[in-house]
Design goal:
There is one protein chain. The protein is an alpha/beta fold. The chain is about 50% helix and about 15% strand. It folds into two domains: about 200 residues, 2-enoyl-CoA Hydratase, Chain A, domain 1, CATH 3.90.226; about 55 residues, Orthogonal Bundle (Lyase 2-enoyl-coa Hydratase, Chain  A, domain 2), CATH 1.10.12.10. It contains eleven helices and nine strands. Helix 1 runs parallel beside helix 3. The longest helix is centred in the middle third of the chain and has 19 residues. It is globular, with a radius of gyration of 19 Å. The protein starts with 5 loop residues before the first strand and ends in a 9-residue tail after the last helix.
Length: about 260
C-alpha cells in the first residue's frame, strides 16, 4: 500500500523538506502515513548531506489528527494489537524529536489530536496566525497519551491540566504564549519565515547543532551538581577538540566564514 502519504526531497543546500500529503483528509494520520514519516526521518537522519529538515503539510491543514477509518480499525484491535500500533506512533514522534538535524515545522490550518505531537516534537515551530489547535482526545473517550511527553514539554504541565481535560480550541496567539509554537506570522509569510530560520540554522556548525540538541535533553531536568558540571565541562572540551570546533575558532579569529558556510 503506497499512497505517497509523505513526500520527501533534498535541495542543493542540504535542506530536506518532508511534507504530509493527504490534503483531501487534512493530513489525518493513519498507519501508512505514520510509517512513511518514520522512514523519511530515518533517511534524513542518516544522510550527511542534510543540514536542516522542514516538516510541512499540503492542503488546508498541517495535520488534523487521527484518520477516522484508522481509529475505527484500532477500536476492533485487542490490547496487544493496539499496543503495537501505538508503539509505531511513539516511534514516529521519537524519530522527529531525536533527529540529529534541526527540524523546523511550518504549521497552518487545523491541528487536532496527534497533530499537536508533531508540532511539539519539532525543534522550531512556526505557525500561521490563523492556525487553530485542539487536544481533542477526551471528546472521543481517549487521552493524548503517546503525544503527551512532547506536548507537556511544549505547553507545560499546568496548561496541559486545562487543555488535555477540556479539549478547548487554542488560537495561535495562545499557543504561542504557552510555548507550543515559537513564532506566529501571517499565513502568506509562513514560507518566508521558514527560509529565515533555515538561513540562521545553516550558519551553525552541523555537529555543534546535533550536540546541542542532546545537551538540552540531558540538562533540562538534572540538578546542577558535580555530575552535571563534569558532563557540561566535558562536552565543551570535547567539541573544542573536533575539526569543526577548531575550524569555527580559526574562522572567527581570521574574520572569515567557517567551512560549513562557504
Amino acid at each position: 500500500m503506497n499512497e505517497q502519504t509523505v513526500l520527501s526531497e533534498v535541495d542543493e543546500r542540504g535542506i530536506a523538506r518532508i511534507t504530509l500529503n493527504r490534503p483531501d483528509m487534512q493530513n489525518a494520520m493513519n498507519e501508512v502515513l505514520i510509517g512513511a514519516l518514520v522512514a523519511a526521518f530515518e533517511r534524513v537522519a542518516a544522510d550527511p548531506a542534510v543540514r536542516v529538515v522542514v516538516l510541512a503539510g499540503n492542503g488546508q491543514s498541517f495535520c488534523s489528527g487521527g484518520d477516522l477509518n484508522w481509529m475505527r480499525r484500532t477500536a476492533e484491535y485487542g490490547i496487544e494489537e493496539n499496543l503495537a500500533d501505538a508503539r509505531v506512533l511513539a516511534q514516529m514522534l521519537d524519530a522527529i524529536d531525536r533527529c540529529p538535524k534541526p527540524v523546523v515545522g511550518l504549521i497552518h490550518g487545523n491541528v487536532y489530536g496527534g497533530g499537536n505531537g508533531l508540532v511539539c516534537a519539532v525543534d522550531i515551530a512556526l505557525a500561521a496566525d490563523t492556525t487553530k489547535f485542539c487536544l481533542s482526545e477526551v471528546r472521543l473517550g481517549l487521552m493524548p497519551s503517546t503525544i503527551s511527553p512532547y506536548v507537556v514539554r511544549g505547553m507545560g504541565a499546568r496548561a496541559a491540566r486545562r487543555y488535555f481535560l477540556t479539549a478547548e480550541l487554542i488560537e495561535a496567539a495562545e499557543a504561542h504564549r504557552l510555548g507550543m509554537i515559537h513564532e506566529i506570522v501571517p499565513e502568506a509569510e509562513l514560507e518566508a519565515a521558514g527560509e529565515r530560520m533555515i538561513k540562521a540554522l545553516l550558519a551553525g556548525g552541523p555537529s555543534a547543532i546535533a550536540a546541542s540538541k542532546v545537551l538540552i535533553e540531558r540538562v533540562r531536568y538534572g540538578p546542577v551538581d558535580e555530575a552535571m558540571m563534569d558532563y557540561t565541562a566535558r562536552g565543551i572540551a570535547e567539541i573544542r577538540a573536533t575539526e569543526e570546533g577548531k575550524e569555527g575558532a580559526d574562522a572567527f579569529l581570521q574574520k572569515r566564514k567557517p567551512a560549513w558556510r562557504s
